[in-house]
Write a structure and sequence with these properties.
This protein is α/β, with parallel strands linked by helices and 241 residues long. It has one domain: 3-Layer(aba) Sandwich (Uracil-DNA Glycosylase, subunit E), CATH 3.40.470.10. It is built from nine helices and five strands; from the N terminus they run ααβαααβαβααββα.
């Protein structure tokens, strides 16, 4: 059932033009979902969506980055569709390395990135060749994409959502109608855990942010209060500190 719902969501995304038709052309994005075969199983070197629909944890980043990198990845993948794991190892960004380390260390080697559903607040890809910069309207594109983020949450039904940086948290604040502070640091300090029904949102600093490791790990360790490593159906109680 989840697979069918997610399939339908991808097809819905393929028809979206909110960010591809921005009035300011240098802020427009590229809709990767129009090429269904391109993104159906593995949209990037970060995730194989369809193998993670039953994850208890969801990570929401800001955006996929430049389309040029995604295109290069898919050319490699199409040469041998069984070599995704090897291709992943070619991508040694500090963001991915540090995120993996935080997940592994905080869970005492019981969880890794492969166990987590990974998505973004902004689902389309950037033009150009840069991950950062002002070639994207972060606020507008985040708001444009919030309905698709909500549908992913409804399909996956995670117990815990981790937000990397400010705009993923901003998106959830609009979806679930809660207030957040004007900066990520203030938001983390004031609301290190946010309870929405049976869902817990844990705002994280970006892994490469200039924040001490111990301070970062403190947030990651909050995850495991809500995750049953034995994968039983018994729900873990939610209680904010």
């Amino acid at each position: 059932m989840k697979i069918q719902k997610f399939n339908s969501l991808i097809k819905e995304l393929s028809g979206c033009s909110k960010c591809t038709n921005m009035k300011c052309k240098n802020k427009s994005l590229i809709n990767i979902y129009k090429d269904y075969d391109f993104c159906i199983n593995i949209p990037s070197i970060w995730t194989d969506w369809f193998n993670r629909l039953d994850s208890n944890i969801m990570i929401i980043g800001q955006d996929w980055g430049p389309y040029s990198d995604m295109e290069k990845f898919h050319k490699l993948l199409n040469e041998d569709k069984s070599n995704w794991k090897e291709i992943i190892e070619l991508e040694k960004s500090s963001t991915k390395r540090m995120l993996e380390n935080f997940i592994v260390e905080s869970s005492n080697n019981k969880y890794a990135l492969d166990d987590i559903y990974i998505t973004n607040a902004i689902m389309c890809a950037r033009q150009g060749n840069h991950y950062r910069g002002d070639n994207i309207d972060l606020k507008k594109s985040t708001l444009n994409c919030s309905e698709y983020l909500l549908k992913q949450i409804q399909i996956v039904k995670p117990k815990v959502i981790l937000t990397l940086g400010y705009f993923p948290l901003f998106s959830l604040s609009k979806i679930f109608e809660f207030n957040i502070e004007k900066t990520l640091k203030e938001a983390v300090l004031k609301s290190p855990e946010i309870e929405i029904g049976n869902l817990v949102i844990i705002p994280l600093y970006h892994p490469v942010a200039q924040v001490k490791k111990d301070e970062q790990l403190k947030q990651y360790r909050r995850i495991w209060k809500y995750i049953n490593f034995k994968k039983s159906s018994k729900e873990v109680g939610v209680k904010n500190e």
